[in-house]
Structures are given as structure tokens and as C-alpha cells.
Amino acid sequence: MSWQSVTVANLQQLESVNQAACEWFREGKMVDVKVRESAPSRLDAMKALQHHWYNELSAQTGKSAKFMNAYCKLHFGVPIARENEEFKTIYDQVIKHLPKSKKIYLMGPPVSITVTGNFNTQQMHRYLNAIKEWADRKRYRLTTNHDLYLKAMGA
To answer: E strands along 62-147, which residues?
Structure first.
């Protein structure tokens, strides 16, 4: 028996949870459901900020937000994720030798290898700072003066 906990922030995510529960029912399993109100966390704010920044980068680079997501995951997320030996081993054996275009493809939909999804608050902070430093060097402007940024960065 396995236990999974998920925070649902929108109807699409709720539908995904519903689909998973329905699959368990089809397999003849019973499902326990516990529902409680959840307050947004700093990590939630960080994840929202990263996607906001992907959209801002998209508008400034002419690349899609999905591409910017994949690009940032590859260039800024993978080095942090590779500090985990299990991730490093798998990445180095399966992905590292591939050309950059293939790596970008694997980071984005429909494959979308999990990189930042497992980050804790400290790792996510490093990831966001790396994106911001890169964007500053490239003279891209990222929003840093609104509530989302302040909450994400713990200000």
C-alpha cells in the first residue's frame, strides 16, 4: 500500500488527482481521501515565479515559454540536480552524451524530465538566482519588484 500526498492549486490538477483515483478503482483498489485547506508555501511561490519568468523570457527572446522552461532546466537546474548521486548517475548514463538539442527536447513536453520538481526551497532559491544572473548578463528583464518575487525569495 502506498501513500501519496498532493497539494492541488487549480482545477486541472484536481482532475489529475481524480484520474489517478479512478485508475485505482479500475484496478479494484480502495482509496482513502483526506481533504484540508492548504496555505500557499514559499516553494509554491518559487514555482509560480519560475513560470512567470519563463513567460517573460519568452516575450523577450522570441522563444516559447516551454522552450525557456526546458532551457533553464537544462542549464541551471541540471547542475543542481546532479548533486544528487542517483540523478547524476542516470543523467550521465542516459542524457549527458546527447547533443544539446536532444537534451532540450527531453527537458520539455511531452517528455519533460523532472529536474526542478524535486527541488527543496534552498535548491529552488539557487535555481532562481542562476536564472536571474543569466538574464541580467543577457540584459533580459525579469520581474523582481512585486509580491510574487518577494514571497518566493523570502523577503
So the answer is: none
CA distances from 79 to 82, 92, 93, 97, 116 (A): 5, 11, 15, 15, 11
Cell of 45: 511561490
Question: Does residue 146 have a pLDDT over 80?
Answer: no
Please state the pTM of the whole predicted model.
0.73
CA angle 117, 108, 130 (to 5 degrees): 60
DSSP3 helix / strand / coil % (the chain, rounded to 5): 65, 0, 35
Residue 25 · residue 108 · CB < 8 Å = no
Q: What are phi and psi of 72, to 5 degrees?
A: -65, -40
